[in-house]
Amino acid sequence: MDRDTLLVKVEKAEYLKDYQVRLTFSDGLSGVVDLKQEIWGEVFEPLKDVEYFKTFTKDRWTIGWDCGADFAPEFLHKLTLQQNPKLIIQ
């Protein structure tokens, strides 16, 4: 991971459907990420209910839920690139 990736943060987050969220990052990258496969483990258990999943909020750096679950912004950035290989950082 390069230095710029370590400093990336989520600027915008929009729920789309199921476990899909459109994310825009501070480096200009924007794309849809599907988090369904990332929802495992005790802290993420409540997110398996899609109605609860929809309730995420965006803080200064990333998205999170009232239960304490969140995803590191650099993880979301990497996942967005992996799931959308044709995206270009603007």
TrEMBL record:
<dbReference type="InterPro" id="IPR036782">
    <property type="entry name" value="NE0471-like_N"/>
</dbReference>
<dbReference type="Pfam" id="PF10387">
    <property type="entry name" value="DUF2442"/>
</dbReference>
<protein>
    <submittedName>
        <fullName>Uncharacterized protein DUF2442</fullName>
    </submittedName>
</protein>
<dbReference type="InterPro" id="IPR018841">
    <property type="entry name" value="DUF2442"/>
</dbReference>
